[in-house]
Specification:
The chain is of the alpha+beta class. The chain has a single domain, classed as Beta Barrel (Lipocalin), CATH 2.40.128. The protein is 20% helix and 36% strand. It is globular. The protein starts with a helix and ends with a strand.
Length: 173
């Protein structure tokens, strides 16, 4: 009976967490967030399937308030690949809810994707990025790898946010 109750509570907690609203961090200083980030892990997705290692994201603040985004990786043919886009802040109170676009038609960007910062180190050494659907997720850091202690903390945040840490694939370096 005790085992059944434990399993039931885990299932109930997981189900509730997945249905609850994704929560962002309270505030992001975009000046501190700007710069180079290494992808430590991600939920595999179709638009990055060609990237096999050394994936990075570089964020540069622009005078108009937008953020220039340059994603780079080594593709499945061993060649460097680079994608450029724009991010814009959706929630100006927290700066933690952004949208990104990598598709432009003559300067018009009809497609935007959610980019919510749901975990952030106080010294901006690592970040967790997610989407309300929880279909996408990334663990970013200022270095290519993080310690086991930091990863345990990140995994707990992921669980609390309704993500399954085992869905995240470690990026290659």
């Amino acid at each position: 009976m005790k085992t059944f109750l434990t399993i039931f509570m885990i299932l109930l907690t997981t189900t509730f967490a997945q249905k609850s609203e994704l929560k962002t961090v309270e505030f992001v200083d975009l000046n501190k967030y700007a710069g180079l980030w290494y992808e430590v892990a991600k939920i595999p997705n179709r638009f990055q399937k060609h990237c096999v290692k050394e994936t990075t994201a570089k964020y540069t603040l622009k005078e108009n308030g937008e953020i220039e985004v340059v994603n780079s990786c080594i593709d499945d043919k061993g060649k460097p690949d680079k994608t450029e886009g724009i991010a814009r802040v959706v929630d100006k109170k927290s700066n933690a809810k952004l949208e990104v676009s990598f598709f432009s038609i003559l300067g018009w960007r009809p497609i935007w994707g959610d980019y919510w910062i749901i975990g952030l180190d106080e010294n901006y050494q690592w970040a967790i990025v997610g989407t309300p659907s929880r279909k996408y997720g990334w663990i970013l850091a200022r270095t290519p790898k993080l310690s086991n202690d930091v990863m345990e903390k990140i995994n707990q945040i992921l669980v609390n946010q309704g993500y399954e840490p085992k869905k995240f694939m470690v990026s290659g370096y």
